[in-house]
């Protein structure tokens, strides 16, 4: 009997992947929060931050690339693009008129 692999099942992260994704996401959010705080109240920080938002986002993307399988990473990128509004636009959006 042949078993067929379900593509959706292959997209589910393992428990170790889920843990690594959670840690990377927490680090990204913490660093972005620090950047926000530095913008809102610069004198409150004892020393300048050693990273930029672009560096944080690139580091997070690189972490996901190492953690996820190629199919999972592709789905991750698609979700990121849609979430940021870079790829998906409503049919009646001003950019399409």
Tell me what the structure shows.
The chain has 97 residues and is mostly helical. The chain has a domain at 21-40 and 48-81. Helix content is 62%, strand content 0%. Residues 1-23 are annotated as: Disordered. Residues 11-22 have a biased composition (Polar residues).
Number of helices: 4
Q: What is the helical fraction, as a range of percent? A: 55-70%
| Strand residue percentage | under 5%
Oligomer: single chain
Region (Disordered): 1-23
Biased composition (Polar residues): 11-22
Annotation keywords:
single chain, mainly alpha, 62% helix
Secondary structure elements and their pairing?
Blueprint: H1 7-10, H2 15-40, H3 53-67, H4 70-84
Structure summary:
With 97 residues, the chain is an all-alpha fold.
């Amino acid at each position: 009997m042949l078993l067929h692999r379900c593509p959706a099942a292959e997209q589910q992260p393992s428990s170790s992947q889920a843990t690594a994704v959670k840690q990377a996401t927490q680090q990204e959010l913490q660093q972005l929060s620090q950047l926000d705080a530095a913008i809102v109240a610069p004198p409150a920080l004892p020393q300048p931050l050693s990273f930029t938002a672009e560096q944080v986002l690139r580091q997070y993307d690189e972490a996901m690339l190492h953690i996820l399988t190629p199919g999972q990473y592709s789905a991750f990128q698609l979700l990121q693009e849609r979430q940021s509004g870079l790829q998906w636009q409503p049919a009646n959006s001003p950019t399409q008129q």
